[in-house]
Amino acid sequence: MLRVRNLRCGYGSLHVIRGLSLHVDAGEIVALIGANGAGKTSLLKALVGLIPPVGGEIRIDGRDATGEPPWRAIANGVALVPEGRQIFADMTVMENLEVGGYRNPDRALPIADVLERFPRLRERAAQLAGTLSGGEQQMLALGRALAARPRLVLLDEPSMGLAPLMVQEVFRTIRALKEQGVTVFLVEQNAVAALQVADRAYVLETGEVILEGEAADLLRNPEVKRAYLGKGYKEVWE
Ligand code: ATP
């Protein structure tokens, strides 16, 4: 579904992604974990054409998508759920969802189908998006992405700023996406949650992949435990 080879990109002369390679197969949930500033958001921006690559290759479904503009990402079946949700606060829930399918109306998922997946949003369809709780806003950002009927969803730190119960709900939704055949590439600082939901994962450090493997193996990996999981992490989730 997604193959990135030796990607280099950044901001002017600052290259924050430095020869990164990874792949996401159809039907997988793949996580990318890494500390603040490792380059996670920059990678996602490059994948949807928001920052141009200076080297390497991005292939979507076997097609060369390197350097294509953002609107092509949607046409290619890729949707980004950005960091901090970025919902349209002064528009209603319904209007936000309509924006998700706006670019490709022929392909868009009917809003009723999106609302079916998110009963909380259905109850609040006429509410201004800016008045939703953080968790509801995250659901809306997900719903808006799904309205474009993507085959690959890129999620940028969906658990950020959410209470533990809401984090669990967001991650349950991510699992449900997989069950519905959507491929997920998940960027997270919450390494425990990400590794518990993912099939495989990559660890990013200063723009380079330093570890990769089955998510369950990385969860047990002493290096990952020391750097990303912290002491007592199990109590949070068990
Ligand atoms: P976080 O988890 O804190 O969101 P991240 O892993 O997503 O971090 P990025 O946001 O990709 O990291 O940032 C990687 C590096 O690129 C950082 O050093 C950051 O300061 C820099 N950077 C990000 N955006 C810009 C920009 N618009 N202009 C210049 N440098 C930037």
Sheet with the most strands, sense and barrel status: 6 strands, mixed
Radius of gyration: 17 Å
The total count of strands amounts to: 10
Side-by-side strand order of the widest sheet:
6-7-8-3-9-10
Instruction: Describe the global form.
Output: globular
Order of helices and strands: EEEHEEHEHHHHEHEHEEHHH
Number of helices: 11
- Work out the helicity level: 25-40%
Overall pLDDT score: 91
Q: Ligands in the structure?
A: adenosine-5'-triphosphate
Uncertain stretches of 5 or more adjacent residues = none
The structure class reads alpha/beta
Descriptive overview:
- The structure is a single chain.
- By secondary structure, the protein is of the alpha/beta class.
- It is built from eleven helices and ten strands.
- A six-stranded mixed beta sheet has the order 6-7-8-3-9-10, with helices on both faces. A four-stranded antiparallel beta sheet has the order 2-1-4-5, covered by helices on one side.
- Helix 7 links the parallel strand 7 and strand 8.
- The longest helix is centred in the last third of the chain and has 16 residues.
- It is globular, with a radius of gyration of 17 Å.
- It starts with a strand and ends with a helix.
- Bound molecules: adenosine-5'-triphosphate.
- Adenosine-5'-triphosphate binds next to strand 2 and helix 1.
